[in-house]
Please model this.
Amino acid sequence: MKLSLPNSVASAQDLAALLLEVRDYARWVSHESIKKRVDVAHGSPAPILSPGTTELLRAWETKKPLDRQYLDELIEALEKYKATARSITITLSAPPTSGLKSTLVAWCRQNLAPNVLVTFQFNATLLGGMVVHYGSRVFDWSFKRQLLANRANFPEVLRRV
Model:
């Protein structure tokens, strides 16, 4: 099955956290299956999972139930995803809301690459817009850059205000 991460899992750190949660869940599933085989009456509660992990497990479970072997396949797919994913950094002028993050990640995965990981930063000196870093390339669409590029016109604009 092709792995598709939820948009709430944006960066390499989010992916690492997701991988840890899936490993913990797989360990719990394995322990619970052993308890069922030896007729232990009470089981331990399932680990608390983040919404992104829950969404991923539900999507992964569509073909067959989640057993230890199928979860191991998911873990292997996540590790392969982590090793091959492209990464970009988007710097904004303020910390992004979760809705904005999700929208930007969805756009990047739809238009750039389906396995892209997006890291968000913020820098108030940008004054607005964004700066995107991809590998050694930098795309600067910030308001600060526009002001500096039109430095000669700035006094005229201020006189008109």
